[in-house]
Each structure stands twice: as structure tokens, then as C-alpha cells.
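Quick illustration, no need to memorize.
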Amino acid sequence: MLNTADDIEVVAAVDGGRADATTDFLPWPWSSLKAAELTRTGSLFHLSYTLATAAAPVFLGQLVQARRDLSLRLAEISEARAYERLLTAQSVLAKERAQLAREMHDVVSHQVSLIAVQAGALQVAGPDTGTRKAAATIRRLSVETLDELRHMVSVLRASGSRPTELTPQPSLADLRRLVDGSGIEAELKTDLPEDLPPPVQRAVYRTVQEALTNIRKHAPGARATVRVQHGGGTLRATVANTAPTRPALPLPSARHGLAGLRQRAELLGGTVTSGPTADGGYELLLELPTGDPS
């Protein structure tokens, strides 16, 4: 079956070459065969020329077919190399995830477990009510962190196999529990519809969570106010704190929290801005478009 114009042209050229060679070698009309008197040298030269004329289209067709086969072979080789590079990259990523899972399980989880144990002991034997309450908060947060770490380890170890079901993601309904359990004197004010997209709700939750964590680390004794409002097609989440009342402890920080919040907001078409306030405090503002002008 002829599938391409090149195939049709090659076959036509071959058939045409054979026909030309036949008619060129055999004189016409056939009745003149007996009358033709050619010398032996002339006949051999004429025969060689005729055979070459007939063979040229055949060689041309073979050349075109070889070129087509070579192109297909090169395309197959390119696809095979691309697939091999993909498999190699996936293998490297799988090894890195497995190593990360081991580090999280053996180091991070172990240390958080120790924090939870020590906080539990302090909760029982604390010298006063404030200390025991703080120890209870530390223990609760440590246990929640351990649960999240265990899930992250299971997800990393399952990379390359069938997807695992993720844990329920936080929403705006969890803001109250987040603020109340932050260990900070904080006030929550919200005025939001109930049908906001889940990615927007998660972005608000993670922004408030990161802001409260930073206040707890860098502004001890400060009071916080969390406002989440919606209007004019834009959602605004503001977390502001007063000036700290005591020096902050020198805790390690990778300084990736705000960068991650900005990246999350940019993916949703929004922005995150932050900076000090006039009273010595700090304010963080998240703005996200919701597409609803109400």
C-alpha cells in the first residue's frame, strides 16, 4: 500500500525507467528488428546504456527507502534516549526521597519525640500553673508535629509506587483552633463566605500559621491580631503583633517561611507583604484574588 507522495513518486519513477529502457532498447516498429543492422560494439554500448537507464530509478527508490528507514531509526533512538534520561532522573529522585525520609525518621522525629517527652514531664512536675500550661502546649504541638512528620515520611517512602492518600488539608474552619492553640494572646476577626476555593483557604491557613510561629519565635510576649476579610473580589488576611515584651531566644531559622508564603500566593495570583509597624511590632498581609466582586 502506498502511504506517502514519496512512495508514489518512487514507484512511478521505477516503472517509468523500466518502460523507457524497454522502448529504448527495442526498436519500433518491431518489423524493423530484422532490418536493423548494428555493429557488435554499438549494440553492447547501447545495451549497457539501456540497462543503466533502467537501473537508475531502482537505485533511487532504494536510496529514498534507506533514507526513510534511517530517519525512523534516528527518531526511535532519540525517544529511547529521552525515556532513559527520564528513568535515570526518576531513580535519582527516588533515592533522594528515600534518604530524606530516613533522615526525617531517624533524626527529626527522634528529637521531636524527646521534646514531647520532656514537655510531658514538665507538665506534670511544673512549679506553677503557667509553666505547666506552657508545657502542655509544647507537648501538644510536638505530638501534632510528629503526626505530620510520620505522614510526610510515608509519602516520601511511597514515591514511585501508587499514590497515597493525603491527610485532610486545613481550611478556614480550622483557623479558630489554630489561633487558640498558638500559645499567643491573639484575637481572630473573620468576615468570609463559606464557598471560597480550597487552595485559597489553605493559603490563608498556612499564612496565619507561619505568622503566628514567627511571632512566637521572634516577639515573645507580644499580642497578635488576625483579620481575614473579603470584598471587591479580593481576600485580605492580616496578622499584626505588638512589640515584644522580652528578648527573643536565639532559635535556628532557615528563613524560608516568608519566601514559601510568597511563592504560594504568586501561584494563586496574589501577593504577600510584610514589615515593621510604627509601634515596634510587625505586620504581614496576604492578598488573594477570588474572582467574586461581592
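The first helix runs from residue 5 to 25.
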